[in-house]
Amino acid sequence: MDGAAIKTRALRISHTNATNYQDADATEDMNYVYQRLVNKIVAITKGDYFWDTGTADTVIWRSEYEAKQLGIDPDDLDIKRVNKVFIKYSDTADYTQARYQNPWALEKHPSYYSENQSISDPFFYIQDESIFIYPAATEVVTDGWQIYVIHSPADISVSSTEDDIEITKDYHYLISMWMAVEILRNQKNFNEANDVQADFDREVQEMIAFIKQRYNQPVPKDFSKKNNYR
Length: 230
Known about the structure:
- This protein has 230 residues and is an alpha+beta fold.
- It is 36% helix and 18% strand.
- It has two domains: 3-47 and 154-228, no CATH class; 51-151.
- It is built from five helices and seven strands.
- Strands 1-7-3-4-5-6-2 form a seven-stranded mixed β-sheet, with helices on one face.
- Strand 3 and strand 4 form a beta hairpin.
């Protein structure tokens, strides 16, 4: 579901119309529940759910690559951490995972490692918006770099596309359910709001069970408590 469809569904559940529920209010309610669903998924998966990849060609004797060169733009993504970095030093080689290295713990100047670090033990570190990897490549390899980053999903709105909404697509409808709860409460229709919230809590539990199963983790018994969302 995209943002417009989510709003439309919320209006249908709450028996109201767009005149009484402006886009600004819809966006506020939408993000209230969306970011809480995101936070719950992050907690379950230890932060490894919302990720992006970038690739780039290696450049001969270059160790510094800006994140933008790797297809990961900090201006577009709220990057929380670099998860993994892979590199290969020839077209016929396999990718090798680079280990993270604290640059302040290096015994020699970084330029030393450009030539002398073993290609079987590459390492990387991050400074500002650049990633440094050693040893430097000695030939151009197409897509020789692969980087995986974990990011924080951006806020959404009624104009968001389905792909903009980064929780599991099968559960986008949960956002509309919570929006309907807010609408019904504003209408003083508390009994129906409570009924919709009860359905919402059960459906969230189903989503959590689905994600837990994928990550082989036990399902929390207390997730359906209402104070998880208010």
